[in-house]
Amino acid sequence: MRPLLMLWSCLVLPGYGSVVDPKEISGFEGDTVSLQCTYGEELKEHPKYWCRKVGIFISRCAETVFAGGYGQEGRVSVHDNRRENRFTVILRNLTLKDMGKYLCGVKRLGFDKTASVSLLVFPGISQPFTQLDSTSTEDTNFVPSSSSKSRVSIPLIRILAPVLVLLALLLATGLAALGSCMFQWREKAQLASETQKKDKVHLSHLSTSLSFPWF
Fold this sequence. Notes:
alpha+beta, Immunoglobulin-like, 2 domains, five-stranded mixed beta sheet, five-stranded antiparallel beta sheet, 30% strand, rod-shaped
């Protein structure tokens, strides 16, 4: 009787052998990201899977990728490492359509052991994929842990672009103002020159009149 009660507890009691702790991973378009899902010793021989979470009131799986050791569907691959009680999910060449909720799960009799994972994808330029060190295997619960390195550095040109545009506008404005000042100065200089010429002509006529008076 006692073994039956223990089996029933394993099947229906929430939280037994798993800790559902929502995680979040992120990357840019074209990036490759990965995460590791750790499970308990009692789930070692069960099939592992990764799927897209769909449905509002009742959650269900779509685009499921199973791993009986290793599995791959399109740009997604799942590798189960039973020695370390964890499996790795790798998502390659991310697109904006990949953004959403996913389930990291272990299939078993009754209710599957799953953990929810949120994937965020940002528009941007892809960088080379970097695989980080594996997480510790001391935890025997089924917990997704991100092993991807999201790109947080922004290209220098993106930071300097607004400054360069502002400097270009200031330079253009300064050049326009300088050109306007030069144009006004030339006009004034020409006007002064013409005035001096007229004064000289007037003085010349006046001097001639004084030299030959009419009387």
